[in-house]
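Let's study a protein:

===
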Amino acid sequence: MAEASARIGPNAILQFVPVLEAARGPEETAHLLAMAGIIALPDPAGGLIDEGPAARLHQAVRRALPGDAAQLARAAGLRTGDYILANRIPRPAQRVLKHLPARISAPILSRAIARHAWTFCGSGKFRLASSWPPVFEIADNPVVRGEVSEAPLCHWHAAVFERLFTAICGPGWRAVERTCCAQGAAACRFELLRGDRGRVGVSLADAGDSRGSAPAPPRYFRPEEGRPLGIGNFAARKLARGTGGGADDRARGRRPGGMDDQPGRPTRSDPARLNRRCVRASGRRGRGHRHR
């Protein structure tokens, strides 16, 4: 009876149908919907739906299209993430998070996902195992309930997570499902990793995404430019003049934050000043010793 009462977001179906129609055509899509017992598509404005039809659609695709199911589910998950970004996460909040280092924005996003887990977990049990690095667990995941597989199957969930973190916390994020209920594990465990670290295990980015060969980005960066930045004094300086953070200062020979932010003011870390000091110091040492 749990299936009749548990609810899940309608995008588990609504974002899957356009992907199926584009890849397999309207007739095969209608056949898959019929296999799942879906007579009419849910109303996007109608709120949560019964999790049963959504789970059956995902499972029907895996049974009917075993070779393409992973990529199709991934594409549907990316679309779902785009819908959430456009309609569920306030734009001002997104702008603020995008200007924060990933070490700060990722835990905030992780906790927000945990607070709204009921929209994608249905009767499953969500747990935020770690906010940094982000690790999510879904026990008794209804989307794979009753299935048996040697490899993880939750491509839709992982793609949703990956899309949200990539859009808000910067490029290079990869969702890796380490264990899956279909493998007999107690929970489907998703790790959000950056750069090459995501190549270990089963990564959804490998399904039609070539970023696995790209080098890992800086741990802290300015998302729109890919430039490294520091945490100190970041928010105030970004709002004041839109410049980089501590790493940019160190590249210019200035201490991050404080008085050294004043343009044109010489600092103790100025490269030319350091060079002059070294020359003077070497001269003093030379006068005190006889050259041989």
The chain has two domains: 2-221, 229-285. The first strand starts at residue 7 and ends at 8. The chain has 13 helices and eight strands.
